[in-house]
Amino acid sequence: MIAKISHGGSLYGVLAYNQIKVDELHADVLFGNRIIEPPGDKPYTIEHISRSFGDYLTANRKTEKPILHISLNPDPKDCVTEEQFIKLAEQYMQRMGFGDQPYIVYRHNDIGREHLHIVSVRVDETGRAISDSYEHERSMKVCRELEQQFNLTPATKKEWKEGLPLSPVDYESGNLKGQLAGVIRPIAREWHFQSLGEYRAVLSLYGISVDEVKGEYGGREYHGLSYSATDKDGNKVGKPFKSSVFGKEASIAALEKRMLSSAAWVKSHKDIATDTAARIASAMQTAGRDRAHFERELMRQGIGVVFRTNDAGRIYGATFIDHADKTVFNGSRLGKEFSANVFNDLFAGQDSIHPPQQSAGVERPAQQQGHTGASQWNGHDTDYQPDHKDNTAQNVANAFSLFAPVQGSASGDQPAPQQRKKKKRRRYGRQQ
User: Fold this and answer.
1) How far is CA 168 from the centre of its chain?
2) Which residues pair with 121 in a beta bridge?
3) Which fold, 2-150?
4) CB 3.0 to 4.6 Å from 278: which of 137, 222, 368, 403, for a disulfide?
């Protein structure tokens, strides 16, 4: 597990960051410690949460950056239940000296991995600063202890040095070139993909597009790549960058070699494809015909999905991204029961919560976004009838029968833990 601790001066800014995730249904509030509860069943708001920190910040004597923002990131392979996440947050805050402070805990589930964000203050009720001496070293020690206590995958020294897992590019944050490089280089170097389309799909989850550039200049043909940042709707923003800016590993020649080596790697690690297919089948069985629920279930199991749609809304491509094993699969590569036709008929007429805005004549990948309520099929008996002559219905049934649901997956169906003194768990932003 990797922890990142940030100090800031704006309470509103850090609460707004997490509230946006809640509003987009990419996060929910797990619980609060010494946080004033909203009346009735009303959800938390930035203004309401701020009241719980008001007295501490008013009493602050001279701490320049009194706001504490912590993210706790288990390994993507770890399957952490809600109860474990709650205890994890409580134990971490207690051992770091913030157990008696007001704090609120958010669970984020974007980019195929669940992790926590904790917002608190670094000054006590009298306004005195809570010591941050050797904070990084103490945090590492606490994480090692919690890894053993909760049987989590230990983070390596390299992972601590390199920092947190990949994060989406945020155009508004600046340093666009650096942000792009921070995602493109490790994906091009470490991930397994067998086509440019699969490479493009995984980049799209991190807010990056890549285009082939072909032509002739000075009597010589050239073939290269151009990378751009995208907004949440999939539209390019800012200036594009040539692949050479990010080094040889981001070039078309290097990527073609990577595709060949990836094909050999996947062939020798057939269990990866089998496990990924099983998790997809489990999500299909749980979500039924509900596309947003299906995408949510996949995210909980560490898998991203990119559906490619045309202007008519028909799904003509499906690519699955296994974040834990850093492997990308075109749906049909996993089996005909995971082909685009199956999902088109399964989710006919449905969009994600925030579908990309499409320009005329332009086809964009519909990235996984949003959650909806669950609808389930009873067993394998459905009213589903394909509208064309194929064996899609049988393929869906095959997906359910060939692969049993993954044991111990973070499906979100865990029983809610007992309410604790001074704490109350609220679920806003995610429907169970």
Assistant:
1) 9
2) 67
3) BirA Bifunctional Protein; domain 2 (3.30.930)
4) 403
Burial class (CB in 10 A: 0-12, 13-18, 19+), 224: middle
Share of the chain above pLDDT 90, in %: 52
What does the pLDDT read at residue 366? Answer: 41
Q: 4 pairs with which residues across the strands?
A: 71
Whether 56 contacts 128, CB under 8 Å: no
Q: Which of 74, 92, 69 is nearest to 4 (CA)?
A: 69
DSSP classification of residue 157 = H
Scanning the structure block, which residue is given the tokens 């009194």?
66
Q: Per-residue pLDDT tens for 109-140?
A: 876 678 999 999 999 999 999 999 999 899 99
In the chain the first and final C-alpha atoms are separated, in Å, by 26
Domain boundaries along the sequence of the chain: 2-150, 176-347
Average pLDDT over residues 154-158: 75
Residue with tokens 């989850």: 205
What distances in angstroms separate CA 387 from CA 161, 342, 350, 393, one per listed residue?
A: 53, 11, 16, 10
How many Cβ atoms are within 10 Å of 61's Cβ, its own excluded? 10
Q: Which of 116-125, 156-165, 286-295 has the highest mean pLDDT?
A: 116-125
Cα separation, 300 vs 293, whole angstroms: 11
What the block records as the tokens of 75 is 């390994």
pLDDT value at position 299?
Answer: 81
| Strand segments (E) across 177-258 | 208-217, 220-230, 236-242
Contact 371, 28 (CB under 8 A): no
Q: Whole-structure pTM over 0.90, yes or no?
A: no
**CB-count exposure of residue 271 (10 Å: 0-12, 13-18, 19+):** exposed
Residue 244 to residue 360: CA distance in whole angstroms: 31
How does 129-138 read in b/e, with b if 16+ C-beta sit within 10 Å?
bbebeeeeeb
In order of 77, 186, 271, 405, 417, the CA distances from 83 in angstroms are 18, 33, 30, 21, 6
- For residue range 28-82, list pLDDT tens digits in order: 999 999 999 888 888 999 998 999 999 999 999 899 999 999 999 998 888 899 9
φ and ψ at residue 325, rounded to 5 degrees = -100, 5
Instruction: Report whether 71 contacts 93 (CB < 8 A).
Output: no
Q: Beta partners for 367?
A: 306
